[in-house]
Amino acid sequence: MTVKNIIRQACVTATCVIMGTTAAFAADMGQATGNDVNVRIAAGTTANILGQINAGTKYEVTGRSGSWYQIAYNGQNGFVAGDYFKITSADGKVTANGVNIRAKASTNSSVIGTANQGDVFKTVGRNDGWYQIEYNGKEAYIGKDYLAGENLSSLTEIGSAADSVQPAAAQRQYAVVNSGSGLKLRKEASLISHTLQVLPNGSVVDVDRVGPKWVRVITDNGQKGYVSAEYVSVHNGEKPSRVTTFSSGKGEEIVNYARQFVGTPYVWGGTNLRSGVDCSGFVYAVLRDFGVSVSRSSATMVNNGVSINKSELQAGDLVFFNTGGNSGISHVGIYMGDGNYIHSTDGKGNGVTITPLNTGYSARTYVCARRVL
After folding, report:
1. Cβ neighbours for 342, distance < 8 A, ≥ 6 positions apart
2. Which listed residue (16, 194, 235, 279) is catalytic?
3. I want to staple 266 with a disulfide (CB 3.0 to 4.6 A). Which of 120, 294, 309, 346 is the partner?
4. 179 vs 199: CA distance, rounded Å
5. What is the three-class DSSP state of 72?
6. Which helix (H) or strand (E) holds 12?
7. What digits encode the pLDDT tens for the residues 41-89?
8. 126-138, pLDDT tens digit by residue?
9. Is position 331 annotated as part of the catalytic site?
10. Known catalytic residue at 194
């Protein structure tokens, strides 16, 4: 091979390397959500602190460890807690050919380009079923089903959270926190959003907007933010000055009220306390009449309130069972005290009945208890 050919070959090879580099993923980037955020040598609050970072300066994200982000910090790897760090941009790789790039996050929006499998875009946000990308220096969107990347799901929600949270009804509403460990009030409707503060169990806050997954609330000091709808109960009317997290008197009132419906027949899906109820329908309807909001099915109701030990049971607590032979919750009742609970069953009792908790079938299938009052 001549010297000229060798040089030409070397140039071609160099060009291939450069082209390959430009096609590779660029770095995912992120920044602190506040000032003086600790960067640690490992993922954990007990790890040594390398230094601190402030909002406004972006860092390369090099990995994840649980809820911690690994970042490039002063020439070494450091770790920042996810509560104090957010992804500002991430690479998204197209997973199919002929994917439409649209001007807005809607299938009705105009198509401004197409992408093929393997194409990589800088992705800066997410909106319901869409990712927002940078395309030819402009804002554009690709459907979530056609873009893949490690940190895409951690991008900030842009617009969808607010759009999916509807304004509260004309009447005043308030929410009560039902979480024994407290509930994080977040800046945005996202589990990775910055935590503004932690609301103690039993806190009462004004409701601004209500959505299926998030509730926007306002605290007494005027702080506005989002809380998970799973751990608050929303009520209509004037906000009380305070709410007791548990009232044995109220629990006994609920039990006495529930007792009058013994004999109501079992009806799958029913919530009418006089004509027919299933197990969760019975609990749901009884608590509803006391202004206590819980999920409709036993499998989701088990996430309401706070967990308590069996030895801590008091009247009005909810008891959950696995009667189907699998690992899931399939039955619920209301603890009455004195070792008994009231529930609606399609078994031997057939309808609303009172059953000992600590013997026989109930003892064998008991799983856990929750306090929702």
Report:
1. 255, 258, 259, 262, 333, 334, 336, 352, 353, 354, 355
2. 279
3. 346
4. 9
5. strand
6. helix 3-23
7. 998 888 899 999 998 899 999 988 877 899 999 999 999 988 788 899 9
8. 876 789 999 998 8
9. yes
10. no
